[in-house]
């Protein structure tokens, strides 16, 4: 074994764990790690805010399936990372955040930029640890990657006192490798019971959550669904787990991000096999409505997730990929391959009979028209990134997704500003893909300084801004209170001109105010981004008072968009 600077051992660990890009900001307390990075094959992207660095690492992780890495110095660098850690924790995204720290013997003396970041980060990480000895450095980082990947994935924070970073350790990269990660298979008996319930139901559904995407289990999901001819719905985090143009696609149920026909299908179902879904409140709405008339099988890798929101009729603990593979295998053994039946035909009727309009020619532009143009222009392999607000809800309701890891959204935490840095991370991971960030005007302003990062490093992507000059989601939420308070973002004289902001960063931008210009603007932005290797903005001015259809329960959508008269009595005998 050779004695080496311990930070060189850490960088060797990062390289062997498959990290080719890290996002960060150097500072005095983290410079020994940066000195080691300088000699490595790892690309460093200097961000403009540590929160942006965590979101970029998050985006990189979501599209690669690997562990993203963000680096900052001591004090406020670490506290700035907390939102990104929370976002990754909420959405089960594996990232490692590394912070510098004051020397160990100064931590109790209120040293400059010394803060107990480990204690601050514990509630929003799977593991937060401070490196105490230089000899532990490679092994602490190996364990961090194992923990980030294992079970329900999530974030880890490692705090590095600067004096420890300067130490040495015995390490030979030729003798070391990543720690194994357990992929738990489900119990055989539980698999048999789940398949019996699924095959015996008259109107079954499979609900694919984000865990199916994280587990790379889309193929296994499709095999099970097609053999038994069971329709498949997705959650917002599960978009892309099942192609939305497949005959068995059954839409999306929910109180915000949903399809009308998806809610109707769900309400007619009698059994739901939920895989890698956490039953979030924006999906379920009123639990009494959600559960009434149907049984549930819940498959999750995290045992404590089962029964957390409500008790299922059957809980199955296991990784989504082997669980779905085992169910597909069991189904092939006990049930002959099925053809489309009454239930699948009913799903088709609801899909055809309950569409939402998206062909509006109104001025100002109606948001559904924007997503119609997005669906028609961009290819199936395009990766979309979006965050939180009315534009996320419209995206969930109207946008089509066909492949896993092509639709990225900060689902539970919902931090404004997530899209631009996340898009940077995505494009760094997959430079060959077209990347599109769908943003709101207010969200864009939270971390718009990260545009400078994309411009500096020539990271091209398209930004489509849905601008209604309001805090639109809050304005809609205020309606029952009969108020319209503190939500006006009107950009008149003295306000923000987003086109000029982009131009100040050296990036092209265009504003669109009539629907007939949308297609041309998207064509222009796509070509400009690729040719000039820069982020390009299309700002779309939509009607200010546009609302998103949503309600407190799955059936409350009727209050916003009355359903046409349709026969609900169906003969399920075949």
TrEMBL record:
Keywords per UniProt: Ligase, Lyase, Thiamine pyrophosphate
InterPro entries: DHS-like_NAD/FAD-binding_dom, THDP-binding, Thiamin_PyroP_enz_cen_dom, Thiamin_PyroP_enz_TPP-bd_dom, TPP_enz, TPP_enzyme_TPP-bd
Database matches in SUPFAM superfamilies: DHS-like NAD/FAD-binding domain (SSF52467), Thiamin diphosphate-binding fold (THDP-binding) (SSF52518)
EC supergroup of this enzyme: lyase
GO MF annotations in UniProt: acetolactate synthase activity; flavin adenine dinucleotide binding; ligase activity; magnesium ion binding; tartronate-semialdehyde synthase activity; thiamine pyrophosphate binding
Reactions this protein catalyses: 2 pyruvate + H(+) = (2S)-2-acetolactate + CO2
GO cellular-component term (any): acetolactate synthase complex
GO biological process, one term: isoleucine biosynthetic process
Limits of the Thiamine pyrophosphate enzyme TPP-binding domain: 388-540
Gene3D superfamilies the UniProt entry points to: 3.40.50.970, TPP-binding domain (3.40.50.1220)
Superkingdom per UniProt: Bacteria
Pfam families xrefs: TPP_enzyme_C, TPP_enzyme_M, TPP_enzyme_N
EC number, as in UniProt: 4.1.1.47
Domain Thiamine pyrophosphate enzyme N-terminal TPP-binding: 8-119
Domain Thiamine pyrophosphate enzyme central: 191-326
PANTHER family: GLYOXYLATE CARBOLIGASE (PTHR18968:SF14), THIAMINE PYROPHOSPHATE ENZYMES (PTHR18968)
Family membership: Belongs to the TPP enzyme family.
The protein, known as: Glyoxylate carboligase
Organism: Sphaerisporangium album
């Amino acid at each position: 074994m050779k004695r080496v600077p311990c930070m060189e051992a850490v960088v060797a660990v990062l390289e062997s764990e498959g990290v080719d890009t890290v996002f960060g900001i150097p500072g005095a307390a983290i410079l020994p790690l940066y000195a080691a990075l300088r000699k490595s094959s790892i690309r460093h992207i200097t961000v403009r805010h540590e929160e942006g660095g965590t979101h970029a690492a998050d985006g990189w992780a979501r599209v690669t399936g690997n562990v993203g890495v963000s680096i900052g110095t001591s004090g406020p660098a670490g506290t700035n990372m907390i939102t990104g850690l929370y976002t990754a924790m909420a959405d089960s995204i594996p990232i490692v955040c590394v912070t510098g720290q004051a020397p160990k013997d100064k931590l109790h003396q209120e040293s400059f930029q010394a803060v107990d970041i480990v204690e601050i980060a514990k509630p929003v990480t799977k593991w937060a640890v401070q490196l105490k000895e230089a000899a532990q450095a490679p092994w602490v980082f190996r364990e961090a990657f194992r923990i980030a990947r294992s079970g329900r994935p999530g974030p880890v924070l490692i705090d590095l006192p600067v004096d420890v970073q300067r130490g040495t350790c015995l390490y030979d990269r030729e003798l070391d490798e990543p720690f194994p990660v357990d992929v738990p298979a489900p119990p055989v008996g539980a698999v048999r019971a789940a398949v019996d319930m699924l095959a015996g139901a008259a109107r079954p559904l499979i609900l694919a959550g984000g865990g199916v995407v994280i587990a790379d289990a889309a193929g296994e999901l499709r095999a099970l669904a097609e053999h038994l001819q069971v329709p498949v719905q997705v959650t917002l985090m599960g978009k892309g787990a099942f192609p939305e143009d497949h005959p068995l696609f059954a839409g999306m149920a929910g109180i915000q991000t949903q399809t009308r026909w998806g809610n109707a299908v769900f309400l007619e179902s009698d059994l739901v096999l939920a895989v890698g879904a956490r039953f979030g409140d924006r999906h379920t709405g009123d639990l009494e409505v959600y559960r009434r008339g149907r049984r549930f099988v819940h498959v999750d890798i995290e045992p404590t997730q089962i029964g957390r929101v409500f008790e299922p009729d059957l809980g199955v603990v296991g990784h989504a990929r082997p669980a779905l593979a085992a169910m597909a295998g069991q189904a092939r053994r006990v049930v002959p391959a099925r053809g489309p039946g009454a239930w699948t035909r009913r799903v088709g009727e609801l899909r055809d009979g309950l569409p939402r309009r998206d062909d509006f020619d109104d001025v100002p532009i109606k948001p559904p028209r924007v997503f119609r143009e997005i669906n028609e222009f961009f290819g199936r392999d395009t990766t979309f990134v979006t965050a939180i607000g009315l534009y996320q809800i419209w995206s969930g309701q109207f946008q089509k997704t066909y492949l896993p890891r092509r639709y990225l959204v900060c689902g539970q935490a919902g931090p404004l500003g997530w899209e631009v840095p996340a898009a940077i991370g995505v494009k760094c991971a997959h430079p060959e893909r077209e990347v599109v960030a769908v943003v709101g005007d207010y969200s864009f302003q939270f971390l718009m300084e990260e545009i400078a990062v994309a411009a500096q490093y020539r990271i091209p992507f398209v930004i489509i801004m849905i601008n209604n000059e309001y805090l639109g989601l809050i304005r809609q939420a205020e309606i029952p209170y009969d108020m319209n308070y503190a939500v006006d973002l009107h950009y008149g004289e003295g306000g923000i001109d987003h086109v000029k902001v982009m131009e100040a960063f050296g990036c092209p931008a265009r504003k669109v105010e009539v629907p007939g210009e949308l297609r041309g603007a998207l064509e222009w932005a796509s070509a400009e981004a690729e040719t000039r290797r820069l982020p390009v903005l299309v700002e779309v001015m939509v009607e200010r008072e546009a609302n998103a259809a949503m309600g407190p329960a799955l059936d409350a959508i009727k209050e916003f968009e009355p359903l046409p008269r349709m026969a609900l009595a169906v003969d399920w005998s075949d």
